[in-house]
Amino acid sequence: MANFYTDNEDLKFHLGHPLMQKIVALKERNFKDAGKCEIAPRDFEDAMDNYDRVLEIVGDICGNVLAENAESVDHEGPEVIDGRVKYAAGTQQNHDILTQAGLYGMSLPREYDGLNFPMVPYVMAAELVSRGDGGFANIWGLQDCAETIHEFASEEQKRQYLPRAAKGDTYAMDLTEPDAGSDLQSVQLKATYCEKDGKWYLNGVKRFITNGDAHISLVLARSEEGTHDGRGLSMFIYDKANGGMTVRRIENKLGIKGSPTCELVFKDAPAELVGERKLGLIKYVMSLMNGARLGVGAQSVGIAEAAYREGLKYAQERRQFGKAIIEFPAVYEMLTNMEAKLQAARSVLYETSRFVDMYKAYTHIANERALNKEEREEMKKYQKLADIFTPLLKLFSSEYANEIAYDALQIHGGSGFMKDYPIERLVRDARITNIYEGTSQLQVVAAIRGVTTGQFLKQIREEYEQTSIRPEQEYVREILKGMTGAFEAAVTKVTAVGESEYVDFHARRLVEMAGYIILGYLLLIDSQRCDRFAKSAEIFVKYGQAKVAGYAAFINDFELKDLGMYKK
Amino acid sequence: MKGLKIVVLAKQVPDTRNVGKDAMKADGTVNRAALPAIFNPEDLNALEQALRLKDTIEGTTVHVLTMGPGRAAEIIREAMYRGADGGYLLSDRAFAGSDTLATSYALSCALRNLEYDLIICGRQAIDGDTAQVGPQVAEKLALPQVTYAEDIQKCDGKIVTIKRRLERGIEVVTCPMPCVVTVNGSAAPCRPRNARFVMKYKNAKGTQEAQDANEDYFALVNERPYLKLTEWSVNDIQSNPADLGLSGSPTKVKNIESVVFQAKEAKVLSGTDAELDAMMKELITNHTIG
Questions:
Q1: Alpha-carbon distance A248 to B273, whole Å?
Q2: Range(s) of the domain holding residue A476
Q3: Best exposed site among A113, A269, A407, A415 by fewest CB in 10 Å?
Q4: What does the pLDDT look like over A124-134, one tens digit per residue?
């Protein structure tokens, strides 16, 4: 009778962040639906009670169904039969039960049969699903596509495609092609407009498409003949019921085996244009990707939580040399660092979710009425923060998921290498998180703007540094201030050269320095509301301090000409 | 075919599945504080069978009837979270101390207040494990009964076709309606609580629970009458007081023993046929098995 929500107090803690009051009021438009709709919350407390109760259902299903099915799903995997995907039996059961529980369309407005939940509880559900089965989190998490449809599609399309989420229809985002991976500007799948019937038709191949055989797909396609870059691409909604698409094969992968990764062939497949032509990549994919990266952040934290628990349990139970191995410094240090990284990753996950919540709520309100000056400024502020925190989150959480899973397996010793324990699956499942939806290297490319424009520094100095801290923890802030100084000096040194390749070369180090400071502050600030985080805050900050000092030394001794040594 | 009226009999029980060492008090009675109150597991299987009929036959309603203290209204809410339309809580001091006979009598009296095409309940409750209440209700209402049901396969409104799970196989039977069906734990597990239903019904309360409620609750009930759960006392049913509660219960508990298993020694066998043979003989001789 495991419940992944109630067995982890950290979740309730993050759900109870002070900014939630504002987020919920914005999301619920000051509770205007309270009298009209029987599931609309009447006030803040009522809304929070709803989130809590619904997350308890999620935690129950994840602990008792998803986690129980994870091993068989990993062994069985999906298969292709006559051009269609058949999920593993456990995957299908997971999906059916989550549908029955009404857990699809969580963030959509109630008028489209959604629950109208903010991102924070929705992302929390994603974390829980991922802890249960990291691969299944993809199928469940692709309801993000509905969010993009909600944001950019016409009212008629919204009415047609959004309520289907709650009925159990699944989604896919069809972006990648054999020659267009990280470089989506090279997408070739062709969209042709037919004057006769006024419809668009898709022709071409998509590759590495997660849940490619979904009921509803968002397809990035070249609508402007003769173009070769991103400006010739548009976004389309494809409904599988209309035919024209088959699954040619599914990939045999290292991990997340339950999640079907498909190669799709479109032959005169009818589709509908979403929003405006030519904005497919420039505007809509960017929104889709930001949502997906937040999703991978949640997935990473969920897998990390599962891995940490496996490592901890094994270390407590395994006895060698007459005592439990957790009593050896080499083992307990690993576990304590794993816990600190896990809590830091979770903290930045929900910080980012709150930023996304704030700007998204304002974006939707702006469609209903004009925002006043103060609201516009707040929207801009949070949008900017969300834009730089999303890649930072994805970078840190996915790398930590891998490190935590790696160390958890190490704690298992030889047993960890065997299929007898779940940890080997978690290591394999974690491995994709720092690759897909933009590799870690590409997250750095997205996040470096926050470094070079001074946005991270501004957020650190003007927000985090100003938070009131208990006197006995003041020395932790002093360490963070020192780290901030070192970061600032490193940024100045790297940017002063005025050579973009030099900045690119050090970008990861600079982004990570910012990350160590930010994650350290977040844990320190969390520990003001809850003592439980005080230890992790200190451990993480000291760990980050060493990392930042190392990077600072490296950058300090590195001249432009040294680049030559590294070139291949 | 018109919709069915289904009543599910359900019981709130202490969760005896995960019994710790503090499950019994020193005096040999059940330590209810250490055991959370839950929806009797096989009653959840019964509820699922009812909800499946509701899914397939339009206009079907599912109501839960439960007997217990005021807090047993939780069972009705739990059923509503999964898709039931409502329920009735039979609650009165007059019912206290009921054994299976008095319980089935009280339930059958309450059922006379209701219209039904099917009465579905779990095979047995995990606190008493008697499996007597369902069959006794059927007898008292002079209804046919199907026990050990695993799947209600077909229902045309007059005849119901049911797969039964028996000790030595399965059996498919038909039964005229109305009838009582008791459902096995091997039947399909109950569907999860649904997020929308939880948000809709979370404030539903029985009469006793409402005594402690604040003004907000009463204002809300005015708008949403479905938040008031029906509660019946002994005065709401027609019954013979002598057949209720302790006086109506011929079962008398003579003695309860708290047996604590204490394995003093362990034997490790390597698994050869000869060893297993010797072990079986030993266990049969000392009457551990057979």
A1: 53
A2: 452-566
A3: A415
A4: 999 999 999 99
Q: Are the C-beta atoms of residues A524 and A476 closer than 8 Å to each other?
A: yes
Please indicate whether residue A310 is annotated as part of the active site. Answer: no
pTM score of the predicted model: 0.93
A54 and B194: CB-CB below 8 Å? no
Angle CA A407–A408–A411, to nearest 5? 85
C-alpha span between A252 and A260 (Å, rounded): 9
Selection from B62, B33, B32, B46 nearest residue B124 by Cα? B46
Instruction: Select the residue of B194, B200, B223 nearest A101 (Cβ to Cβ).
Output: B194
Look at B191 and A53 and tell me if their CB atoms are within 8 Å: no
Residue of B192, B198, B223 lying closest to A97 (CB–CB): B192
Q: Answer yes or no: do B192 and A115 touch at CB < 8 A.
A: no
Residues A20 and A120: beta-carbon distance below 8 Å: yes
DSSP A319: E
Q: Is B23 helix (H, G, I), strand (E, B) or coil?
A: coil
Q: Which H/E stretch holds residue A250?
A: strand A245-250
Contact of A100 with chain B, judged by CB distance below 8 Å, is answered with yes
Q: Contact A71/A83 with Cβ under 8 angstroms?
A: no
Which residue in B47, B196, B209, B199 sits closest to B121, CA to CA? B47
What's A462's domain CATH number? Answer: 1.20.120.470
Structural domains of chain B ordered from first start: 5-248 (3.40.50.620)
**Is A138 within the bounds of a domain?**
no
Q: How far is B156 from chain A (nearest CA, A)?
A: 25
- Report if residue A225 sits inside a domain: yes
Is A481 among the domain residues?
yes
Locate A218 and state its tokens.
Answer: 């968002």
Closest approach of B122 to chain A, Cα-based (Å): 20
- Residue ending a domain, choose from A264, A280, A296: A280
Domain count, chain A: 2
pLDDT at residue B270 is higher than 90: no
How many Cα atoms within 13 Å fall on the side-chain side of residue B205? 14
* Interface pTM, i.e. ipTM: 0.93
Burial profile B156-182: b = 16 or more Cβ within 10 angstroms, e = fewer: eeeebebbbbeeeeeeeeebebbbbbb
- Looking up tokens 């190392």 gives A550
Interface of B with A in 200-239 (CB under 8 A): 200, 202, 223-224
The per-residue pLDDT for range B102-128, each reduced to its tens digit, is: 999 999 999 999 999 999 999 999 888
Residue A164 placed within a domain? no
Cβ-based neighbours of A112, under 8 Å, separated by 6 or more: A105, A150, A158, A159, A162, A163, A165
Which of A280, A307, A337 is the C-terminal boundary of a domain?
A: A280
| CB-CB neighbors (< 8 A) of B198 in chain A | 50, 53-54, 57
From B18, B195, B200, residue closest to A57, measured CB to CB = B195
Q: Which residues of A, range 110-169, sit inside 8 Å of B by Cβ?
A: 115
